[in-house]
Amino acid sequence: MPAETRQHEQHPATAAGHPHRERHRPRPLDRIRAAPGGRLALKIGAGAFGGALVVLGLILVPLPGPGWLIVIAGLAVLAVEYAWARHLLRFTRRQLRRWTDWLLRRGWPIRLLVGTAGFVLVAAVIWASVRVSFGIDLAAVSWGYLNT
Predict the structure, then answer these.
(1) pLDDT 10s digit of each residue in the chain, 148 long?
(2) Which residue in 42, 92, 108, 116 has a CA-CA distance of 20 to 30 Å to 136?
(3) Where does the record place the region Disordered (predicted)?
(4) Of 32, 34, 58, which Cα lies nearest the Cα of 45?
């Protein structure tokens, strides 16, 4: 085949409709990294914001709510610039997938037991948080309402 014809042919991976067709288009983070001082700014920004999310998530873990979800979101932000965070995020995703797969393979009695244990744990954390923070014993207050 003549060289002129080969120059204008597209590689199969860049043909229309292929998912990797636009891999040469610069991504927004690549444009930031290309700017003067952009790489350092992105590293500092990702570190500060991601670190703050991780710390906030860890503070919220013992409380009811999305503590672990916020920790994982913080890891995702850190993973933009730090390889250790990418590895930790992959490990976390694998473990979460393994746990979910294991639980889905179990019958409804085991799922019910795990759900009940989770509910009891969350209830205990709420009780302890309210008891320590406000000095209110929710169990005693609830028992008082049930006995009236």
Answers:
(1) 454 444 444 444 444 555 555 556 778 777 777 788 888 888 888 899 999 999 999 988 877 778 889 999 999 999 998 999 999 999 999 998 999 999 999 999 999 999 999 889 888 888 888 888 889 888 888 888 888 7
(2) 116
(3) 1-28
(4) 32
